[in-house]
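A quick aside before the break. I want you to see a complete sequence-to-structure record at least once, exactly as it would be stored in a machine-readable document. Don't worry about memorizing anything.
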Amino acid sequence: MEKTKTFITKEELKTHNKKDDVWISIYGKIYNVTNWANHHPGGELPLLYYSGQDATDVFLAYHPQSSSQHLNQFFTGYYLKDYDVSEISKDYRNLISEFHKMGLFENKGHGVFITMCFVVIMFLLCVYGVVSSNSYLVHVFCAILLGCSWIQCGWMGHDSAHYQAMVSPWWNRLMQSVFGNCLTGVGASWWKWTHNAHHIACNSLEFDPDVQLMPFLAVSSKFFNSLTSHFHEKTMNFDSFTRFLVSNQHITFYPIVACLRVFMFVQSFNLLFSNRKVVYKNREIIALLVFWVWYPLLISYLPNWYEKITFVVISLGLTGVQHFQFSLNHLSCDVYTGPLSGGDWFEKQTIGSLDIACPSWMDWFHGGLQFQIEHHLFPRMPRCHLRKISPLVKGLCNKHHIPYKCVSFWKANNLTFSTLRTAALEARNPINSAPRNLVWEAMTSQG
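That is the input. The structure line, written in tokens, reads:
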């Protein structure tokens, strides 16, 4: 039977890596997914990023076992010559198989339902307090309640975007719309677009949008070479203005993170009104408008502008805690440049992520993402199982001599600050040249 197969080399496969010619290898079988890219539930980026190479580990990480039966329609009839699998990939695939046998991907647990109940209670208490009370302190407390409920909405929106919260895709999409668009004002399509790119290109300076934070932040001096973002399809220029901002990023980091929710509001609408294809666009626009009706209406019940502004600042500012948590998981970890590779999927996801050590009773605060390494390796795994599988992942890392980084919340904070400070000091070095202008000269002049 082996002699009847038609093989192509890895070099030949690499030539099929253009937007109008997308081939991938899964278990050594070659598939032409060019026409599927526009219909892929995860968007076209995963297929484009890993086109022209073997993507078996990536496929297994993101798809249930039932997805394999849909591959035959894309089979080209070719097989990959000299298809080989590294020892760590073998162990990773065996671990996924074991988790399937244990039913961990299907068993969602009760955490989502409990969280939903808390969110609804906090939201209703906030509305009741604003509408029925004239007390300034009560209104401040309501703003805190709303901010806390938004954080938990964010965790549920994140889980449903990975289709790990509910039992069916339809219920997960509904959950994204309600807890993402309607309650928090963050577009589910924008979130999934950027978050999927982050997952499949974890800490790649050229492909991962979550580390492409110029002109405000730069986690590595490699950005000083004005790298090209394959996600945003533009050059990230390290000009004199960017240099000034990056030179002080360890100081401005916390204020920037506190304001990120406003950035998410803007980007959600930018995507919806762009030329980019967005599934269920009209439904999402309506869902976002729901937020922009109830939130201003709630604020209108406050007695004066001082309380209105205070309410907005507190409620939105508290969501910065969640954005800060996301930042701790990656900004201090290893980064890299160059093309993505499906052959070192386990290694890249592990060294690009950081776990936060905490007791189990604090899991609600971190939304499960304190097990960031586990989440990146098994993104479909419901968060209620991440603590259970953590020792197995750590054991696999130890077996293959891959660093498994797990530190306290405060240590992660120090590592992130140190990373930003190191890059900031490097940005101030005249050797790392950037075009100068009058603004830069004025702000850095001495005497």
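Two observations worth writing down. The domain at 2-84 is CATH 3.10.120.10 (Flavocytochrome B2; Chain A, domain 1). The chain has a mean pLDDT of 89. We'll return to this after the break.
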